[in-house]
Amino acid sequence: MKQVNLDKLDRRILDVLQQDGRISNQMLAEQVGLSPAACWRRVRTLEEAGVIVGYSARLDPEAMGQGLCVLVNLSLQRHTIDSTAEIEREVSSYPEVLQCFAVTGNADFVLRVVVPDMASYDQFLNEKIFTLRGIAQVNSNFALREIKNTHTLPVSE
């Protein structure tokens, strides 16, 4: 996807929507200094251009009983297109995996996993990760506390 050219009003709209995705169009228009109709058209254009990819509610993992966060480094035995694609497909299907990145460095993939507790993580490893073909090494890093967790992108010029 090519980068979309955004003007100051588009950037302001994006900034406000990232802070409050449930804001009414009327309130959004007031905050950015547009008429409601013009604001709605701009938001619609940003959605159609793929700049805005969706809206969602952020949940507290602890309140949902998912208080253990683990960053898992996976290293592969071999790097083939088929084996890598299979691992990506499998890992993407696991609800415990919130994020998966193909990376360079000491691992091939980094996963962000949330589970209720250590026993659940042990089960996740044994029943899912350790059953993946082609995994050479698994390293787990347990989050002690969350310092920053945002999905807000900087939009200023």
From TrEMBL:
Domain HTH asnC-type: 6-67
PROSITE patterns attached to this UniProt entry: HTH_ASNC_2
Species assigned in the record: Marinobacter santoriniensis NKSG1
Matches recorded under SMART domains: HTH_ASNC
Descriptive protein name: AsnC family transcriptional regulator
CDD domains: HTH_ARSR (cd00090)
GO MF annotation terms: sequence-specific DNA binding
Pfam assignment, any one: HTH_24
Keyword annotations from UniProtKB, A to Z: DNA-binding, Transcription, Transcription regulation
GO biological process annotation, one example: response to amino acid
InterPro entries: ArsR-like_HTH, AsnC-type_HTH_dom, Dimeric_a/b-barrel, Tscrpt_reg_AsnC-like, Tscrpt_reg_AsnC/Lrp_C, WH-like_DNA-bd_sf, WH_DNA-bd_sf
PANTHER family hit by this protein: LEUCINE-RESPONSIVE REGULATORY PROTEIN, TRANSCRIPTIONAL REGULATOR AZLB
A single cellular component GO annotation: cytosol
